[in-house]
Amino acid sequence: MYNGLGLRTARGSGTNGYVQRNLSFAKPKPQGTFSYDQPPPKPARRPNADILLHRSKRQIEVECLTYQEELEGSENFRKKQLAKLEAHVKRNSESALKEEKETEMNRIKDAFGISDTAVEGQAFKFESEKQREERLARYAEEERLEKRRRLRDR
Q: Where would you find the membrane-spanning parts of this chain (predicted)?
């Protein structure tokens, strides 16, 4: 029990005996607290100059955007802009992609230590064409000799 509130003991009550205050109780507001002896309320603050400047800039920006939307809505303007954009994209996309890919490949070459004289796919050619022809000719010769030996041994 605390300040005369709650159970004397929690035994047999089925609770832990913790006492909470009633949060749903609304206290009555005191009335008649106004006095002429109190100082007058503070005057309203003057608005911040930066905020006013920002608001005016924002208004101008909104007007510009509405005018831009009006212009873009007209068909002639829209067609001209699309033609310019297509020409620009066509001109720049190919060269930009090539340059981008080239720089990427150079970075990869540097990372793996590949020399500039390396030929792509050369690592998978274990022998040159001339060596391949020589090897095939040797195999053919060995095969022919083997057939002769077999015929002789019979």
A: none
